[in-house]
Amino acid sequence: MGSYSACIAPGSASLKLTRMRRITEIRDAAVARAMREGSWHRIRCCRAPNGELPSFRFEGGGFTIALRTPFEKRHAPLELLKYFAALREQGVATPRVALPWQMDIWPGVGMNTRGKVLNIEWDDYGTCWITSFRRGPWEDEILQWRTANV
After folding, report:
1. Are 57 and 69 a contacting pair, CB within 8 Å?
2. Domain boundaries, the chain
3. 117: closest CA among 100, 101, 140, 144?
4. Is 20 left (phi over 0), alpha (psi -120 to 50) or beta?
5. pTM of the predicted model, to two decimals?
6. Cβ(18)–Cβ(26) below 8 Å
7. Among residues 141, 134, 140, which one has the least CA distance to residue 120?
8. Cα–Cα distance between 23 and 45 in angstroms, integer?
9. In 3-state terms, what secondary structure has residue 65?
10. CB distance 109 to 62 below 8 Å
11. Arithmetic mean of pLDDT over the chain
């Protein structure tokens, strides 16, 4: 999954090692269960050629987890890609490139989800971006998945 020591949050030099270790453990537990019990769904997306994208989701254990894998085809409007290419040619900084793996976690299932508690991206080489992380009792619930036979 990658090394927690390389994970950083945008806008900060680094996070405390213990906090990063915890986030990485949550990520690993959530990904393992999602991969074991999740399934592919079709979601509406205006950027996709046919208006839909495949989305890997897990709903259970009191949570909804959306997982983007490096094996999915990405869709970005051609005009946007051309615009970023032109900016790069002029030496202008462009938004960072999305990492291959990405996960969102919401407490609740289906229509009963509450605010997102974790949004994280990572690659297989240790790079990790924490976009959002909201502390709470949900952390321990997901970490229990590591030892429970779920």
Report:
1. no
2. 4-146
3. 140
4. alpha
5. 0.74
6. no
7. 134
8. 29
9. strand
10. yes
11. 80
